[in-house]
């Protein structure tokens, strides 16, 4: 028996919150999907403190949804907005960018979930995490797409080992490429190599729209979008135009990266995109010669930050020479049987178990 979204929303509207109102009237439900009897959603609390206070509500919400006739499984993620009253970064003055809305954020046809992988600071390994996570999810049986939306520095063609220009037999639909079990597309595949991209807002929006709407993605369980670093036009137009399931934020443990990660979290909070979790990359370095472990960028900073902000912490990924070499050679480490692949497999298992992939 299939269940309707309306029934689920009605059940959630019956779950009261401390301080009055309910989960629906206080607008805390995000990314609700109902597939047959399987229900998934995110509760996005107004602040980390509120998220902590919502422990009993989480259990009540799960019970209420489970009690709806026809519901076979419930997967819910609790997350929170970033720190509330921080000043906006200058690039977030939304009014400065003319981005006319046409009917609000849209779904991408055939795609169940869209997860953006973001970072505040450049070079923290967002593209490495995106490609390895995509491959790890595909190895665990998910139908995965990977969209390289890093218009200023597309690195997925190199990391996934593809260079062929995608075909477009009718001049409208672009055929994506396949690599390591993943359906992929990158703006880098549409440009000449070494072509500098100096685009302004409207052109970026046009390119992004094409990559999402004109690419024949087919049926996907999850589309991973590798964003450029920071808080700019791409993030803004993506959140305004596309229904995102949520965002994963990658950071290294050091303070300076965390500082920028907070800006990214703040941006997603303003754009009403739920943050599904934080990932610590380059956690520990294990010398391939002597096995000695060094914490080059520190260790544990992202986990502590996630706990502070009431956000899920999704895991630590080691700094390893083999990860860099594999990425440079076009076969992500997650596509191999190297021991370093396990950290990405674990991350993928966690996302699947949490209903996020
Ligand atoms: N865990 C890791 N171990 C070893 N090298 C890594 C790891 N993560 C990333 N790297 C390397 O660090 C460099 C930067 O990584 P990557 O391009 O993934 O970062 P990014 O955050 O996407 O950067 P950009 O700012 O260009 O978007 C790459 O050479 C990559 O191979």
Automatic annotation (TrEMBL):
One of its GO terms (molecular function) is ATP binding. Signal peptide: none annotated. ATP binds at residues 120-127. Residues 7-75 form the MIP18 family-like domain. InterPro entries: FSCA_dom_sf, MIP18-like, Mrp/NBP35_ATP-bd, NUBPL-like, P-loop_NTPase, YlxH/NBP35. Gene3D superfamilies: P-loop containing nucleotide triphosphate hydrolases (3.40.50.300). Binds and transfers iron-sulfur (Fe-S) clusters to target apoproteins. Can hydrolyze ATP. Homodimer. HAMAP family: Mrp_NBP35. Belongs to the Mrp/NBP35 ATP-binding proteins family. This is Iron-sulfur cluster carrier protein. It comes from Paragemmobacter amnigenus. The lineage of its organism: Bacteria, Pseudomonadati, Pseudomonadota, Alphaproteobacteria, Rhodobacterales.
